[in-house]
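Supplementary Note 2. Why include the ligand at all?

Several targets in our set were suspected to adopt different conformations when bound, so apo predictions alone were not considered sufficient. For every target with a known small-molecule partner we therefore ran a joint prediction. The input for magnesium ion is given below.
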Amino acid sequence: MAGVELSGLIKSYGALDVVHGIDLSIEDGQFTVLVGPSGCGKSTTLRMIAGLEEISGGTISFDGNVMNDLPPKERDIAMVFQSYALYPNLTVGGNMAFGLKMKGVPKPDRETAVREAAELLGITELLGRRPRTLSGGQRQRVAMGRAMVRRPAVFLFDEPLSNLDAALRTKMRLEIKKIHQRLRTTMIYVTHDQIEAMTLADRIVVMNRGIIEQVGSPQELYAQPVNRFVASFIGSPAMNMLPGKLLESGSGLVAELACGVSLNIPADRVPAYRGMIGRDIEVGLRPEHLTDEPQASGHNAEFFDVTVDVVEPIGACSLISFMHDGNEYIAQGQPLVTRQPGEQQRLQAAMDHMHLIDVTTGLVVPHKASSTDTGAVESSPQSTSDESATPSGAPLNLEKEIQ
Amino acid sequence: MRGRKSMFNPRSLVIFVSVSLLLLFTGFPFIWMAATAFKSSAEIFVYPPYLIPKDFTFDNVQRLFENTRFVTYFKNSVYVSTMTVILNLIIATPGAYALTRFRFFGREKIATVILFTYMFSPIMIIIPFYVLIRYLGLVNTHFALILAYTAFTLPFSLWMLRTFFQSIPLDLEEAALTDGASRLKAVFYVVLPTALPGVVATSIFTFILAWNDYIFVRILISSDELKTLSVGIADLYNSSVIDWGMIMSGCVLIIVPVVVVFSYLQKYLVAGWGTGGVKG
Ligand SMILES: Nc1ncnc2c1ncn2[C@@H]1O[C@H](COP(=O)(O)OP(=O)(O)OP(=O)(O)O)[C@@H](O)[C@H]1O
Ligand SMILES: [Mg+2]
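The joint prediction is reproduced in C-alpha cell form.
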C-alpha cells in the first residue's frame, strides 16, 4: 500500500511535449481515474508511474520515496494492460504465478496465492489452459488475477476494459470496484470513457492535452466543473452549451441567447456574474436540467420553445434533440409522452443548475456554491476520507495549454 | 468421395500428374541412392538396372564402419554443426534483440547492411578468410570451421530473429517488467519462449548450412581425423576401386538423422504458441 505523488511531471519525445508538468497527489488506498480524450497523455503518465517510460522532468514518489530512476520491478506495482499481455507460452496458472516466481516466492505458496485469486475471480477451472484458448472476458480476468496475486503497493490499469463488449464491460467494472473495496489498495486507472471514470473513481483526474484540467470526486466534477472542457467532457449526454451574451435587466441579469431566447439569471448568482456583463458567454445546462415538464418545478425555472428534431426513447426518459441556431442540443423528456419530429415543444430550464462559461477564457465563472475552493491543483495529501467532498478544482491553465 | 471426384476433374488431374513427375524427378536420385546402399556389389552394376535390391544386404554399411573413419566424420559433423548453432544463437539473439528493442543511431541502416553481407558466396571470401585463420593460427581446427559457419549464417540469423522479435508485442515484455522481472529475465522467460519458432528456424538453417558445407572443410582442414562427413565421404572416391555401395550407404546415413530431427522440430516451426497473448 502506498500513496503516490507526482510533482511537475514532464514527458517529451524529442521536441514533442506530451505531458506538461503534472502535479497530483494520490492517497493511499484511493481509486483514482485518469480520464481524458485520446492522445491527452494518460497512458504516458501511467507508464511513467510504472517505470516503463523515462521521466523527462519532475518527480514521482511512492510514500515519499522518489521512484524516478527505479526500474519497474523495484516499484512494487502491478499493471493490467489494455491488450492483457498474457504470456502465451505459460498456462493461466503460470501467468498468475509469474510475478511471485520473479519475487522468489516458493512454489507451494505461489500455488496457494494463485488458487485464492482464481477463486475470487471465478477462473479456477481455467488454471491449466493457455491464453490462446480463452475468450476475451476470460483473458481479462486472468490479467486481473495476475496483477492481484502479487499484492502490489499500487495497481495500475490502462484501459483494461476497452476490448470487451458493452455488457461484459459493465460487469467487469463492477467487479473491479468490488476488488478495490476488498483490497483497499491504491489503484490508478486510465480510461477515455467518462462513465467508467464516474462509476469507478474515488477521485477523477481529467486530463487534456498533457495537463490536468480538474481533480475531484465524480460528484464535484459533475456539479462544479471549473471549465468548459470538463463541463462538456463529464456527463452523458454532454452538457448543452448555449451561446449568448450576458446583459443587465433591471436589478437582475439576463442571458440573451443567440437564438433569441432570453433566460433570467437566478438572483443569488447575480453578484458573482456581474463582472461578466456585456461579455460573450455560454449557458451550460445538462439535459436533465432542460426538461419538458409543463409546470415550473422550482430551481428558478425559465421556459422557451423549441422544434423537436429527433426523439430517442431510452426507457427511463426520452432524449429530445432540437436544433437552435445550427447547433444541436439535447433535453430530457418524460418517457410516456410521444412526440413527432417538427413538433413545437416548450422546455423548462432549471437555471439553479446552470453554469456560466466565459467564452474568452473557457472558464466556468465561479459562483457561491462552487467558489469556495478553486485554488491550485491539490498539492498535498488531504486527511479527508475517500468520499471526500472537498472540492479541489484545478482551473485551466491557458498559458500552458497554448504552448 | 469428394476427393476422388475432384481428382478426376481435368484441372486437378493436370496438377496431380505434374506434381508427381516433379517429385519423381527430384526424388529419384535419392531413391536410387538408398537402393544402391543396400545392394551387394555384384547387383549394383547389373544391366538392365533395377530399383529394389534382390539381395538386401547391410554389407555396405558394415564396410563403411569397419574400413573408413565414418564414425569420426559423423561425430565431427555433429560437433561442428551443433557448436555453430550454439555460437550463432549466443551472438544473434542479443544482437537481434538490440536491433528491435533499443533505439540507437543508424539502427535500420545496420539492419540492412547486415543482410547485404549475405550476398557474397563463400567462394568469394574463402581465400581472405583462410589467410585470416592462418594468421590466427587456427588452420586445421574445428574452431576455424565453427567461426566460418557462424560468420556466414549470422547475418541471416540476425535478420530472421529480428523479424520474430519485432512480431512479439512490447506489452508482453512490459508486463513481465511490471511483474517484477529484470529485463534479462523478461527476455529469458517471455521473449525467447514466444520467439521459439524463430529460434528453431534459425537453428535449423544454421545447422543445415554447417552440416552440408564442403568448401570450408576442404580448405581449412587437412587432417583426416578432423574432417566432417561431406569431405570424408567425398574422399572415399579417391581410392583406386570406388566402392559405390559403401559411399551410397554413407550418404544415406548423412541424410537420415537430419530428416528425423527436422521432421520432429517442424512442429515448433509451424505451430508456435498461437496468438492469444494479447488482444481479445
Ligand atoms: N513513443 C512516442 N513517440 C512520440 N510520441 C508519442 C510516443 N508515445 C506517445 N506519443 C504521443 O504522446 C501523446 C500521448 O499519448 P498517450 O498514449 O499517453 O495518450 P492516451 O491519453 O493514453 O490516449 P489513448 O486514450 O488513445 O490511449 C500522443 O499524442 C502520442 O502521439
Ligand atoms: Mg492510452
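The two ends of chain A are 37 Å apart (CA to CA). The CA atoms of residues 12 and 18 of chain A lie 5 Å apart. Comparable summaries for the other entries are listed in the accompanying table.
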